[in-house]
Amino acid sequence: MTDLRVFLVDDHAVVREGLKALINAQTGLTVVGEAADGLIACERIAVLRPDVVVMDVSMPGLTGAQATARLQLECPAVRVLALTVHEDKGYIRQLLAAGAAGYVLKRAAPEELIHAIRAVAAGGVYLDPSMAAKVVGGFVRKAANAGPPSGDLSERETEVARRTAAGYSNKEIAARLELSVKTVETYRARAMEKLGLQSRSDLVRYAVQQGWLQDG
Q1: What digits encode the pLDDT tens for the residues 115-131?
Q2: For the chain, counts of helices (H) and of strands (E)
Q3: H or E stretch covering 80
């Protein structure tokens, strides 16, 4: 039987080494790669195509939520498990909305992390028991009260705005959509104006509310 292939993303080398030792000691699990920030992680994961990515939340460059959203666009078959010290429901909801298959708090027992990796690899969803009820309840209420649909945006404006929220640069979007950088900038500006948004962080919040970042 082939081992489950795991990729680690955390900006602390000591944490990565500890996780690597723990995971490689388990039957049927192998760490195939690691990265210290979200952008490098996305690049390496696109090549390695692991089964599960254990993703930190707070990192330089792309945040855990942005990296997760980007992976959902580039590698929808890869399952993301968030591993975080944050017990703030806002962080966790954003990760779930971005497409994470689950999350585990860093204070959890080692066996809980291993169980979570196996669960999401099998296609399930894993929510840390200590936070699950609060997070799911709030997430459902938030979805029910989401803002107005993005029907006023053109298809191109929506695609550019969605990829911007997922952490792509204008140059990367231009290459993927076969447009000039100037055209991408124009679409982005129009989308922001139509939505009444002022910053990229505003756009990320809006994208989460609309469910854009969940679509593979």
Answers
A1: 999 988 988 778 776 66
A2: 10, 6
A3: strand 79-84
